[in-house]
Amino acid sequence: MRYLVTGAAGFIGSHTVDRLLADGHEVIGIDSYITGKREFLANASTSPHFSLTVGDLFDFTTVLEACEGVDAVFHLAANTDVRYGTDHPRRDLDQNVIVTWNILEAMRRRGIKTILFSSTASIYGDATILPTPEDGPLAIQTSLQSASKLAAEAFIAAYANGYGIRALIFRLASIVGERDSHGHIFDFCRQLRKHPDRLNVLGDGTVRRSYLDVADCVDAMLLALQHAASPVNVFNVGSLTNCQLTESISWITSELNLQPVIEFGGPGPAWVGSSPVIFLDSSKLTSLGWQPKLGLEAAVRRTVNYLSANPWLFSGLPEGRA
Ligand SMILES: NC(=O)c1ccc[n+]([C@@H]2O[C@H](COP(=O)([O-])OP(=O)(O)OC[C@H]3O[C@@H](n4cnc5c(N)ncnc54)[C@H](O)[C@@H]3O)[C@@H](O)[C@H]2O)c1
Prior knowledge:
Layout: E1 2-6, H1 11-22, E2 26-31, E3 50-54, H2 60-66, E4 72-75, H3 91-110, E5 114-120, H4 144-163, E6 166-172, E7 175-176, H5 184-194, E8 198-201, E9 208-209, E10 212-213, H6 214-227, E11 232-237, E12 243-244, H7 245-255, E13 261-264, H8 283-286, H9 296-309
Parallel strand pairs: 1-2, 1-4, 2-3, 4-5, 5-6, 6-11, 7-10, 8-13
Antiparallel strand pairs: 9-12
Bound molecules: nicotinamide-adenine-dinucleotide (NAD).
């Protein structure tokens, strides 16, 4: 098979590329490097079965050209910054909604019949059912990013139904692991490199998450691909348990052998759009035989070890933009 992977130089995208190549597929990557890293494609770049287009998916012609001769698309590129969303009122519309439409329209014109899309568990918001199933109530959206993911899901479903496309929509919990270059583990490790004696935590540390290792996430997408029928298939992808942020902090600090003073930001969510609890019912996937290979704690610790071994990831980023 010949796959197009958007966001190929990103965290999840680069793991997806590596896995598809290891499984014997041809892979075309596309990335603008807005947050992606060339280093993440170091292995892939040595493969004769991999090629990369450096370009912005916002440009329809670029997308149309990249889609030539492709059998299926992993659409993983997106603006992934939630916290600073309101500083950029158009960014999620452009990068997550219009770009997704560009992909769908290029697929329609090229006759590509399968899309796999990385949505987010954040669209469940302050979930009233825990663990949250795929048909659980969708919240009134509080972040521009989750609003844009929900809109993108709607376009994907409409294109799937309208043009005979098979769509797999993955609502991802917090994905962690090697090459993780944003999110709380990254932010905390960066802070502790600068000042090992104190850690600033946004909010009160009571949020709960179900961190999942990136390899388990890629496994889930590939297993679902074998089973999904047309037109629209939605899968929650998260670990089977959850933990409070304070537990994750204790794993991070113990892995780093540090005992910092922890300064919490205060009550309430860390920022507008941060869900108090993300705990997904992933039984649709487990019924297909999927099981995370790594537990929450091991996944967090592996991420910390990777970041300790790769301090270059911390350079050149503005303060607070994890
Ligand atoms: N990491 C998580 O915990 C998580 C959780 C929920 C959903 N997701 C979704 O999974 C996907 C991958 O996330 P990630 O964590 O790997 O993020 P990432 O930022 O590491 O990867 C995104 C990649 O897309 C590229 N990109 C962004 N806009 C582009 C554009 N217009 N044209 C070309 N390239 C572009 C970036 O350069 C980057 O390489 C995203 O869609 C994200 O919303 C991730």
